[in-house]
Amino acid sequence: MPNYDPEPKMKFTFGLWTVGNPGADPFGGVVRERISPVQIANLLGEVGAYGVNFHDNDLVPIDATPAQRDQIVKDFKKALKDNHLVVPMATTNLFSDAAFKDGAFTSNNAKVRAYALQKTMRAMDLGAEFGAKIYVFWGGREGVESDATKNPVEAIKRFRAAINFLCEYNINKGYNYKFAFEAKPNEPRGHMYFAVTGSYLAFIPSLDHPEMCGVNPEVAHEHMAGLNFVHQVAAALEAKKLFHIDLNDQEFGRFDQDYRFGSANLKHAFFLVKLLEDYGYNGSRHFDAHAYRQSGSEDVKSFARGCMRTYMILKEKAARWNTDKEIQALIKEINVDDSELSKLSKKFSASNAKKLLDAPLDRVALNIGLPYEKLDQLTMEVIMGVR
Ligand code: GCO
Ligand code: MN
Ligand code: MN
Asked: How many Å lie between the centroid of ligand 1 and the Cα of residue 348?
């Protein structure tokens, strides 16, 4: 029986804001004592995580003096070293402060947009000090409640201008960050711009440095939009744009829940892990989730361990699925090949088109029954642990 312990090569990371989440919600205040970045590093070291990511202000309070900043950085660096943790990703908090109540890069106010750039440059400096190589952009407040308030076309242009500026800053400073855009349809805004991962995949080619930019899809965000997350990730992978991933879980049709990975939709989680493993995804597997409001500090560790353990278990299940003889025989059976026709369809030529137009393809004979119930049941039995 494998032990399912987290392996460093899996690059399991958590954010300071995830295991440090004090359990507040819109209806009630904090229920867990706030713990410091150093305490969080100790916790993550204890549960066997690979790394920790942060927003600028998770680490350095927005009103810290330069001397306080330096002390915090020094203490945190030591805690990272003590716990063998790395910082693969950094990001900017462009959503908590009142200045950003109507957006950061897409604000109607040029001064707010400038402040958002200034804050991001400083946060990029901070992340670089810790060796972060992925820089995430989540537009928490980039959106509207009413389209009377902002021009949605201008918003895209403003966002593009900001990213182009920051790409040049990245080059100028030699930071070598890869930018990863994280989509979300709503919360905290009524309607957020770039609502789904596909929106960013379409946006990236319009940037000055598309090669520097990719996506950071999150399970919960696409499920909130009622979408199949696995398909969104597949699109990013196929475009070679999957730079980072936020793993958690979410019931469809509910508020933003940030549940422990795999805890709500196990079947989707299985196919997600299978996709990432089959295609050799090599970036961080970041858990952007938090423990239930009811959890105490020990239970927060169970939450963190559970995220990683579920991933490891599903990874083993995916390998099992890939080598299950009965499943693989069905996969072979349903993938019907015809070398002659494949050759004709592969590339257009006038002669291939003519041959295809003349091909004796009998649509009635093409209607064959498919053993998909059987295949899916076998899959479920792998997931349920009886195969
Ligand atoms: C959310 C988001 C955030 C971002 C984080 C990093 O729903 O609040 O998922 O947790 O991932 O701000 O950019
Ligand atoms: Mn989220
Ligand atoms: Mn996220």
From this structure: 45
CATH architecture assigned to 8-323? Alpha-Beta Barrel (3.20)
CA atoms within 13 A on the CB side of 206: 13
102: annotated active-site residue = no
Residues 358-379 have pLDDT tens digits of: 999 999 999 999 999 999 999 9
pLDDT (average), residues 262-291: 98
pTM over 0.90: yes
Among residues 58, 246, 249, 288, which one is catalytic?
Answer: 58
Decide if 80 contacts 52 (C-beta within 8 A). yes
Q: How far is the CA of 138 from the centre of ligand 1 (A)?
A: 6
Name the amino acid, one letter, at 76.
Answer: F
Domain coordinates in residue numbering, the chain: 8-323, 325-383
Answer yes or no: 244 catalytic: no
329-354 pLDDT tens trace:
999 999 999 999 999 999 999 999 99
